[in-house]
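S.,

Sequence below, as promised.
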Amino acid sequence: MFAAYAARIDPDQPLTGLELGDRPAPEARPGWSTVTVRAASLNHHDLWSLRGVGLSQDRLPMILGCDAAGVDQDGNEVVVHSVIGQSGHGVGPKEPRSILTERYQGTFAEQVTVPTWNILPKPAGLSFAEAACLPTAWLTAYRMLFTNAGVRPGDSVLVQGAGGGVATAAIVLGKAAGLRVFATSRDKAKRERAVELGALEAYEPGVRLPQRVDAVIETVGAATWSHSVKSLRPGGTLVISGATSGDRPTHAELTRIFFLELKVVGSTMGSKDELEDLLAFCATTGVRPVIDEVLPLDRAREGFQRLESGDLFGKIVLTPTAQGLS
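The prediction came back faster than expected:
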């Protein structure tokens, strides 16, 4: 079957390890289901995998891709939850948690196999492309906002790095949940788009906000860390799920953190139950993922290049089949 996969690891030039071509179709195994992929979406996790983060040389070649929506062997339209091992379903009960492409072949292919426990019904109102955006970036944003930040309608939130998948999701979800959302971006067009999606205001990184916020959604890392900490009200919460600009800020702001009793919470992905809630939230409210571009799988390299450069707003979706958008 045709797939996009990691053939080599290169920390400095990750795209040199990306190959497009034939890979073996998944084999049937007890307790697992094979899904014919209709749509899959790109994440920064895929670039990190090509750099060797979470993916070791001895597991190559590895089909990339965490997210997918498609049709299972019984003809059901489904969404794949990509976290494997946390429950013991389909794997040994002591197997540590991993994300697709770390231990098991991913979704950038015509088919993927996962524990049957990991598939959820796709709501009829969501297209395959829309549903494929939810299991990583949108689930991460959902958990950051509603589980780890603990915000309620009327609270204020700063979202750093508008344009990225998680940040875009946080803006849309926050607006739909009745939050007062502020956003930042270096790019003027992305700031304008963030306001169109529901942010009250969007600023250049580092600009002082009109008020201190209850929570910050942080995925940028070193470049925005100090601003994130300084933007919080006393007792506020900074939730971090990524560090695309690096994980070593020049100033950790420790004095401000302890003096104002700020909370710093790490957040990774989300649970199957949270994904189920997110799917229901989108189906009920009419909220839909922001899709930047849909590409056929044989043009995956273009999508990776745009992701690496940051030249996108929302998600890039890959369609292995002609029915990918239906």
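The first helix runs from residue 44 to 50.

Coffee later?
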